[in-house]
Amino acid sequence: MTNQETIFSKIISREIPADIVYEDDLALAFRDVNPQAPVHILVIPKQPIAKLADAEYGDRDLMGHLLLTVKLIAEQLGLSNGYRVVINNGNDGGQTVDHLHLHILGGRHMKWPPG
Ligand code: DGP
């Protein structure tokens, strides 16, 4: 875990704007500024966990909450035909913002393997 400030912590504090689609006491979700699909949402914990590899056993309720939040948002946005959930972890994973985030990608058919 880290207390490092990132662009996402500034979205949580409303220092910078975002198209927020969901919020509760533990999580925030907003549209990705550089969408890779017709629907591209980022779900983040308000707690500043830098990356999945930094999550600890004590974070298990929060991690489960994030996944169920993904499901809820996908339902609310009408992604009934399916969607992809992605967590980029660290450098080789292609992570560019050091605040854990779950990508929801939907609205088109996804290819496999990803690039
Ligand atoms: P990743 O590569 O997994 O670290 O994805 C980071 C994502 O964050 C990337 O798809 C672009 C998005 N992003 C970066 N800065 C901003 C921002 O200021 N606002 C929003 N809405 N999305 C951002």
TrEMBL record:
GO molecular function annotation: catalytic activity
Domain of life: Bacteria
Pfam families named in the record: HIT (PF01230)
Entry annotation: catalytic residues: 101
Motif (Histidine triad motif): 99-103
HIT domain boundaries: 7-115
PANTHER family from the UniProt entry: HISTIDINE TRIAD HIT PROTEIN
The protein's name: Histidine triad nucleotide-binding protein
